[in-house]
Specification:
Keywords: DNA-binding, Transcription, Transcription regulation. GO terms for molecular function: sequence-specific DNA binding. This is AsnC family transcriptional regulator. It holds the Pfam family AsnC_trans_reg. The protein has 156 residues and is an alpha+beta fold. The chain has 2 domains: 41 residues, Winged helix-like DNA-binding domain superfamily/Winged helix DNA-binding domain (Arc Repressor Mutant, subunit A, Orthogonal Bundle); 76 residues, Alpha-Beta Plaits (2-Layer Sandwich). The chain is 37% helix and 19% strand. It has a 4-stranded antiparallel β-sheet with strand order 2-3-1-4. The N and C termini lie close together (10 Å). The mean pLDDT is 96.
Length: 156
Amino acid sequence: MQLDRYDRHLLEVLQQDGRISNQDLADRIGLSPSSCLRRLRTLEESGLITAYRALLDAKTLGLTLMALVHISMDRHTPERFNHFESTVAALPEVLECLLITGQDADYQLKVVVRDMDAYQELLLNKITRIEGVTGVHSSFVLRRVVSKTSLPLDGI
């Protein structure tokens, strides 16, 4: 899909404020409301815009411990990976699951929990019980330095 400057600007604004009204969005990018809405619908229908979400503050909810968990698997088969991926996808504490390379691990999980007791519960009673998991290495996040949800649109 070819994006022009209006599309890129529209996407930049929406990444910062997904609740902006069509009128305000049109004003910000310099288009009429009808043209803006037409472009927005085209971007949604193309699959470029996949969803609109509210971002919640984990600390306010009492979820104060974030960990990066490297997982090693015993066998590298599609069945083993599919089972692991579907199991961790069902765990609400797992914010992200990445199949990785360049490490001694096969997956990296980003998890958020209330405290160390909750992490122990997740690790010992859920993650390590998934068939095929042979190794787990945890790193705990001390502080978020950069946290973005917006994709870079320059040069696209």
